[in-house]
């Protein structure tokens, strides 16, 4: 039964394909799954169950489908554009549907593949990111994020007080530059030019050119324009989801990474459609651990559905007052070490937030749970 749960994102992807097959206003079907998942994830509630799965082949079939499928969805969109004159409204629906499939389920599936030791899986995971204009994403994620998480050096960790819009815009630029510079530094260590032909950015650009050439052959220039628009939507959307995984959490540089240094969103649909990317406390302790063996952190501060978090963060005061501040107050008082509390107090002050660490009732909760 646990294996079947992870066919949920395959079903979501199938609905998007069905929308392009039917055409007309049905092309909105893919993006409609976003609010539907937000409602379902909230109604069904949290899922703390440990998965009983041991067959890697069965577990990985939906991963591969959800990495390759969104790439093929672009060609379904291009085909629809070639056989039907879509209205502007319908083209917008197609762009959003394709872009959303590049976020969920593609990114969690690609993330799982490029964390594998199998070189073919890693390659497919990397180039699945054609859908988000970022075929070098694994460089910054594996080399940077997994080392710097919850510190000021981590571009995926938003400082307290930062709103979603500012974070997302900065993250798009910073993640791109980080990957380019890391690859250039690796080449220099080999005695090569930082822009040597073996720099992975050239392969990424070549893949992008081939991808758009094929889109043109299927649907013409309009397919290229809509495809690029969907890629841009997906790229910004993907960066925005990092905001909710690490927002405001503090770690002293060089200190061990604990389960407390990230947020988990343990809704049933968050876990299944994200291939456990929202249940990734253990993932940061062992990046090679397969998704279905990650254990939910029951002692962590419960967070709402990741879909609900995204919708709330579109209105920054709502996000900060209703979700972020209450969670971070608990984190400071119940989970942070003394050093982390000191750094957190500085961020709170810089953000203009209350000094909750020195409230009378706060003194009771300051016995930090070190190592969590």
Overall description:
The protein has 372 residues and is an all-alpha fold. The protein has one domain. 63% of the residues lie in helices and 0% in strands. It contains 15 helices and no strands. The protein has helices at 2-5, 8-22, 29-44, 56-83, 88-101, 106-114, 119-128, 137-148, 164-189, 200-246, 268-273, 281-285, 306-313, 316-334, 338-351. Helix 5 packs across helix 10 (200-246) and helix 6 packs antiparallel against helix 7. The radius of gyration is 21 Å and the shape is globular. The model has no long low-confidence stretch (mean pLDDT 92).
Question: Which segments are poorly predicted (pLDDT under 50) over 5 or more consecutive residues?
Answer: none
SSE order, as H and E?
HHHHHHHHHHHHHHH
Mean pLDDT metric: 92
- Give the proportion of residues in helices: 55-70%
Distance between the termini: 31 Å
Q: Gyration radius, to the nearest Å?
A: 21 Å
Shape: globular
| Beta-strand fraction estimate | under 5%
User: How many strand segments?
Assistant: 0
Q: Helical element count?
A: 15
Question: What structural category characterises the helix and strand content?
Answer: mainly alpha
The description of the largest β-sheet is: none
In the residues, how many domains can be counted? 1
